[in-house]
Amino acid sequence: MQSIQANNYLVHFNHNAYEALNKHLKENKYSNLFIIVDDQTNEHCLPKFLPLLETDLTIEIIEFEAGEANKNIETCIEIWNVLTELGADRKSLVINLGGGVVTDLGGFVASTFKRGLDFINIPTTLLSMVDASVGGKTGVDLGNLKNQIGVINVPQMVLIDTDYLETLPQSEMRSGLAEMLKHGLIYDAPYWRQFSDLKSIIFDDLDELIYRSVEIKNEIVIQDPTEKNIRKALNFGHTLGHAIEGYFLESETKKTLLHGEAIAVGMILESYISWKKNLISQEEYNEIKIVIQGIYDQIIFEEEDIDPILELLVHDKKNEYGLIQFALIEAIGKIKINQSVENKLILDAFQDYKS
């Protein structure tokens, strides 16, 4: 597969990825190499990755506990301290091997330690391959507020090897699929319709579907690297989805949702809003709802859940001048950004979802 040119770096695929990595290591005089993993990727992915490295550099492995609950500044402080103790300097290289939590947090750690170390991302989940691989967003959560602390800073390269997906449970695969569905809904109607019958998709097709998803996100980000305009399209499903994800993460009575599970709900809710604002037809809304509900389990919302979710919207990082900003679709494959939505319409969307 041909590498994809992103903003000042390349996304390499499968076998070509390791050739590019080893060439980069030979051409750059790094002092040492730190690989950031969580406990899951340390067990399942690191044993595959290490034998493919061709380097004489001293390699140190830094592990933290997996899960969104650990994507916080406290984990960063622990890793910054470890980097200090192990003698990391400005010529050290950080490789982040893992899902979106690892690449987001590891990228932030590298970008801020000693005012910035080179880093390379190797996403190992479907979600991180099609989402965190492009755009340079790094960061951590602030309590239950998603991605409130962070910087945009691009890696030296991104390596996508779909062999890592063989270690994933089906729930994680479905989580990643949500971002792929989103890319179709906001940008590419034929791509969206490839997912209307999942039974027809075989694993061999996955490389091409991932490649197209990365292309779509990259085409959007290149136009607007710092999210002042069209890049906001990528927030479809995420305004409500992130609030739902944050609420379930902090709740003592709710089961924590995977990112894609929350975004799937957010896409249904925001598609309903798009319909009620006369941006899409009822037929398009029904199509979206049927496809997404055919993939993801229904999430149960009690009446007392809705107000706390709406309160989290006030802190959404996409808000401007105190107004909540939605990216809505005005046809399958077409987006409309900077849309304000009254609370009643959001409540109606939840009622429709629950019904």
Automatic annotation (TrEMBL):
Q: What class of enzyme is it?
A: lyase
Q: Which UniProt keywords apply?
A: Cobalt, Lyase, Metal-binding, NAD, Nucleotide-binding, Zinc
3-dehydroquinate synthase C-terminal domain residues:
176-319
Enzyme Commission code(s) on record: 4.2.3.4
Domain named 3-dehydroquinate synthase N-terminal is located at 62-174
Matching Gene3D superfamilies: 3.40.50.1970, Dehydroquinate synthase-like - alpha domain (1.20.1090.10)
Which cofactor names does the annotation list?
A: Co(2+); NAD(+)
- Which molecular-function annotation in GO is an example for this chain? 3-dehydroquinate synthase activity
Q: Which InterPro entries match?
A: Dehydroquinate_synthase (IPR050071), DHQ_synth_AroB (IPR016037), DHQ_synth_fam (IPR030963), DHQS/DOIS_N (IPR030960), DHQS_C (IPR056179)
What does the record list as coiled-coil region(s)?
none
Q: Does the keyword Nucleotide-binding apply?
A: yes
Q: What does this protein do?
A: Catalyzes the conversion of 3-deoxy-D-arabino-heptulosonate 7-phosphate (DAHP) to dehydroquinate (DHQ).
Task: Quote the protein name from its UniProt record.
Answer: 3-dehydroquinate synthase
Q: Please report the organism this UniProt entry assigns to the protein.
A: Flavobacterium artemisiae
Give the gene that encodes this protein: aroB
